[in-house]
């Protein structure tokens, strides 16, 4: 599986991100479910979080739109506690607080808040995204 990630002989150099995301999703779910998250280094998690935040921001700012940044309709995949734990630590790492967060928050909910989660691309029993 690692070899297929290294194969970057494609015309699209960013296709690797799609393949890596699938593997990272599956393995991270496995680590969480088996209570083995401690086997993943802090640095690896920091790199993933940083990449995700920068890519999400570049896509939303560059494309002039937003999209739902996490899977699921509500809390069936990411709980409010998990989300707030991550967001709080991102804000703390940047030395930002609730006031700055409030100033930067988008004022109106985007259309995606009313959309249903597309379960055709998610298989909970396999904890993977389907292509």
**What spatial form do the alpha-carbon principal axes imply?**
globular
| Sheet with the most strands: spatial strand order | 1-2
Distance between the amino and carboxyl termini: 17 Å
**Strand/helix succession:** HHHHHEE
Largest sheet, in brief, is: 2 strands, antiparallel
Specify the number of helices. Answer: 5
Residue ranges: pLDDT <50 for 5 or more in a row? none
Helix-strand makeup class: mainly alpha
- Residues in helix, %: 40-55%
**DSSP E strands, number:** 2
Strand content: under 5%
Mean pLDDT: 82
Number of structural domains = 2
Radius of gyration: 16 Å
What does this structure look like?
This protein is globular. The mean pLDDT is 82. It has a two-stranded antiparallel sheet. 0% of the residues are buried. The protein has five helices and two strands, in the order αααααββ. With 131 residues, the chain is mainly α. It folds into two domains: 1-40; 41-117, no CATH class. The chain has helices at 2-6, 15-33, 42-63, 80-93, 98-104; strands at residues 122-123, 128-129.
């Amino acid at each position: 599986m690692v070899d297929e990630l290294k194969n970057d002989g494609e015309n699209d150099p960013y296709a690797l991100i799609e393949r890596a995301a699938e593997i990272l999703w599956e393995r991270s779910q496995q680590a969480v479910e088996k209570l083995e998250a401690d086997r993943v280094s802090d640095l690896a998690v920091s790199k993933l979080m940083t990449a995700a935040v920068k890519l999400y921001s570049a896509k939303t700012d560059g494309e002039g739109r937003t999209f739902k940044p996490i899977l699921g309709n509500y809390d069936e995949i990411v709980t409010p506690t998990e989300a707030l734990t991550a967001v709080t630590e991102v804000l703390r790492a940047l030395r930002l607080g609730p006031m700055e967060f409030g100033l930067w928050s988008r004022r109106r909910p985007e259309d995606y808040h009313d959309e249903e989660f597309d379960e055709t691309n998610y298989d909970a029993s396999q904890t993977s995204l389907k292509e």
